[in-house]
Model the fold of this input.
Amino acid sequence: MRSSKWIFILGSVLLGQLFATWPNNTQPNLLGADPPGPSQSSKGKPKSNLFEDDQYNFSLYAPSNWDVDRPQNFAVPGLIRAAFSHQGGASIVVFVQEPIRVDAPRTLLEASAKTMKELLSAKIKRQELRQLAGKQAIWLEVEYAGNKGLSDDDNSINTTQHWVAIPREKDVIVLLLTAATRSYAEHEKAFAEVLGSLRVGDARGRTPEPNKSR
Done:
């Protein structure tokens, strides 16, 4: 299990480390599930890079040149739906939280930033609300000392995390990039690819067609 201390505020309740695995009979359409072949998007994106989660009604494309990782390798405050890793210990994890109550996006943003500062002595690099996939999203970028959340054994480094969370009526979809600060700019480009391809439907509605353009 990777050393991690990923913390997020939802419904005024602090969620600490929760270990998540794929739920029985609800596993999403894993990357590469489509048979190999010439089928590609209009911009040349391989169809096998498409990740679709029918249970939670969202889809995205995997980051280029990243590996699909095992959910069991991560500890996050929620149910992991997809995980990707890159050399040097960087990771992108997609998970869902189902709190008793979903607070307003700004409330979640401010509470989460406050918690990161208090528990990790994190420096808040970016804290804002944005529109993403047609919905209001929390945008929180933090930097802290040490290698919590990385597979890198060097504890003298700094780590940067970029949290993006989309609250819906009954759940919250979270995408989390974790990388050593020294290589964060490179990995942020891959994360931007993922965010640009994200399509999110309503909790019970139809997911819009994935964005195939780049």
